[in-house]
Design brief:
By secondary structure, this protein is of the alpha/beta class. The protein is 30% helix and 26% strand.
Length: 432
């Protein structure tokens, strides 16, 4: 049968008072810009495919699975043919239902997620997909292009001469000279993949690897950050009926720290303009070609647990009422993952392959090296990589990062073996 595409969107803005970023920053006090979920259903054989992004910090474990199940049911497909990625803004929800149960049992910790609000989001997801399927568009052509983003991304892990972490380059105000050091290992390219009904662009996907943070975590002002502003600008300047979907790539060790000082709120629109400019340059290069082949692939992923963590020690930390909130609810996320791992419930990696274009959907916070390696392994394909799918395991460092040390390694729920497991999964995603 001919391919069809049905774009959808729904609101996922938290109510005032809701926890943000896992509950260790101020709760929502004001809505500066709405949070959205955007995506599309591809009507293909043997069953439809659904791809969706949310303006949330993260979506972990059962919460991630539940949204995929709801989207799948609404689209008439199965959960393994649904990809849900988060953009990873920080003044937004970091949703894990098991973590919420753990912290609520304490009585004195901020809840992770309002269950009723989460159910409302699931209902909106179902309604949005069903409504989109009433009037799907033909899907006849695809196009891809890339453009360099200027002065946004920098590697936040600055190494000393011994190859160890010297300091973490933050987006926060800093009096030292670390901001002036080289950007380090990044992927400077913004990738664009667009879908067409004949000559009309119906949906455009943008992929760029950077933590979407200019300033955050101090005021409770809910917003979609500079990447959300760029997405909105692109929608205002493009075809009126085209849906614009932004994906954060493998940005576990990438932020805007070299080009941003969060003391200066005016930096947010500056960074937005730089992302938007790359979107415009990439879009100008798009050359649609007929779709000749479309394939969906999946692979299971369940790396060994980091041996630095134990259930007994995590429970002790959570139960210690003398500890700061952040040092009690972060361990609750870890405990939720360890329980999931003990139940042997893997993460589903997925890939959408159209002609010579591959769009990969990876979990949690992968380091940029995974994205760069993937592009090097498959130079014949246009590789667009999205991180921040199922956030259960938190950071996904490379094997060498464990030797280097640093914050990300200290809170990664998996050990150095995660490197080979994730690379094996990526290779399994490639089309036959």
């Amino acid at each position: 049968m001919p391919y069809q595409i049905a774009p959808f969107r729904f609101d996922v803005t938290v109510p005032i008072g809701h926890s943000l970023c896992g509950g260790w920053i101020p709760a929502a006090s004001r809505i500066d810009s709405p949070l959205e979920a955007l995506g599309f259903v591809l009507l293909t054989e043997p069953q439809p495919v659904v791809v969706c992004t949310l303006d949330w910090t993260g979506l972990c474990n059962d919460a991630h699975l539940q949204l995929r199940q709801v989207l799948a049911k609404a689209a008439g497909t199965t959960a393994d043919r649904v990809a849900v990625q988060c953009v990873h803004q920080h003044d937004a929800p970091f949703a894990c239902l098991e973590t919420d149960r753990i912290v609520r049992a304490q009585g004195d910790l901020p809840p992770n997620m309002d269950p009723q609000f989460f159910q409302t989001c699931l209902q909106r997801a179902e309604s949005a997909v069903k409504e989109s399927l009433k009037s799907p568009r033909r899907l006849t052509h695809v196009a891809s292009a890339q453009a360099e983003v200027e002065q946004v991304a920098s590697n936040r892990r600055v190494l000393n001469d011994q190859g160890k972490i010297l300091k973490n380059r933050s987006v926060a105000a800093s009096s030292d000279d670390i901001r002036d050091l080289p950007a380090g290992v990044i992927d400077p390219w913004l990738k664009t993949v667009a879908f067409y009904d004949g000559k009309e662009k119906v949906a455009a996907c943008y992929y760029y690897a950077v933590h979407p943070i200019s300033y955050c975590c101090t005021e409770g002002h809910v917003n979609s950050e500079f990447v959300g502003q760029a997405r909105k600008l692109k929608a205002e300047h493009d075809a009126p009926d085209c849906l614009h979907v932004y994906f954060t790539g493998c940005a576990g060790n990438i932020n805007a720290g070299k080009y941003n000082n969060s003391d200066h709120h005016e930096n947010r629109p500056v960074l937005a303009q730089r992302i938007f400019a790359a979107m415009e340059r990439a879009s100008a290069q798009l050359r649609p070609e007929p779709i000749k082949r479309l394939q969906w692939t999946t692979a299971d992923f369940l790396p060994p647990v980091n041996r630095a963590f134990s259930i007994a020690e995590l429970e002790k930390q959570i139960n210690d009422h003398s500890r700061r909130v952040v040092h009690r609810n972060r361990p609750a996320f870890t405990l939720a993952w360890l329980r999931r791992h003990a139940a042997q419930k893997p993460i589903t990696l997925s890939g959408l392959h159209v002609n010579q274009i591959s769009m990969l959907h990876l979990p949690a916070e992968p380091f940029i090296e995974y994205q760069l390696r993937t592009q090097m392994l498959y130079p014949e394909r246009f590789m667009a990589v999205a991180g921040y799918g199922d956030g259960g395991p938190w950071y996904l460092p490379t094997a060498e990062a464990y030797f280097q040390g640093g914050y990300e390694v200290s809170v990664a729920f998996s050990g150095p073996e995660v490197d080979q497991h994730l690379m094996r999964g990526i290779k399994d995603l490639m089309p036959s």
